[in-house]
């Protein structure tokens, strides 16, 4: 499990787990440190994908199925032992959903809450009509990334460092661009679903996510663009909200 999951603070007595999926090209550190911030009832698992951090020498995954298989393979016994929630931003929203979809279909397991950020539903018109970018040259790719404001500013300020991140960014984008999931005929899940987004990001079809669950559906918008969740004030609001939702679900579970 240690290969796939970064956990800064193990909490064997935690009542529930929050499993977090990285954005395109991203690592696990941003989410793993949430384990130091959230209260002792929640244990945080941050997913670590191949081609970065301690897995830098491993080849990138080529498709969503590889991510789903690895994450479920590593976590299934743990997911059966106590309640869990999923959190994913951008690329991570797609991987969160794909994992939740597979867990329900194959193992009849579902999260107590799913938090999806900064992404349109995979079957929405907005998503389907998005041009493919992963095959662009590095220069054109960088120009596009700059134009949408979707790159952490600290990376854009250092082109040499950014070039090191480009392979992971492109690999993750390739996975998303080739991920297909039809709109479900009926809800797959019954848990609550919350969508987060930045007010200044490119518009996402958040409402389309409502189709995946029969549970409560909430949208919360924050000041900022694509990486609004890196703002410390926004992050505090998100973590307070996530904590409240998990504590509520813990009461329901008990």
Key features of this structure:
single chain, 254 residues, alpha/beta, Rossmann fold, seven-stranded mixed beta sheet, 9 helices, 7 strands, 40% helix, globular
Architecture overview:
The chain is an alpha/beta fold and 254 residues long. It has a single domain, classed as 3-Layer(aba) Sandwich (Rossmann fold). It has 9 helices and 7 strands; from the N terminus they run E-E-H-H-E-H-E-H-E-H-H-H-H-E-E-H. The mean pLDDT is 92.
In short:
By secondary structure, this protein is an alpha/beta fold. It has helices at 29-32, 34-37, 64-79, 91-107, 125-128, 138-148, 153-156, 159-177, 232-253; strands at residues 5-6, 16-21, 42-47, 84-89, 113-117, 193-198, 217-222.
Please describe the biggest sheet, giving its number of strands, its sense, and whether it closes into a barrel: 7 strands, mixed
Give the low-confidence spans: none
Our estimate of the beta-strand percent is: 5-15%
CATH structural class: Alpha Beta
> How many beta-strand segments?
7
> What is the C-alpha radius of gyration, as a whole number of Å?
17 Å
Give the overall pLDDT as a whole number.
92
| CATH level 3 topology | Rossmann fold
List the helices and strands and how they pair.
Blueprint: E1 5-6, E2 16-21, H1 29-32, H2 34-37, E3 42-47, H3 64-79, E4 84-89, H4 91-107, E5 113-117, H5 125-128, H6 138-148, H7 153-156, H8 159-177, E6 193-198, E7 217-222, H9 232-253
Parallel strand pairs: 2-3, 2-4, 4-5, 5-6, 6-7
Antiparallel strand pairs: 1-3
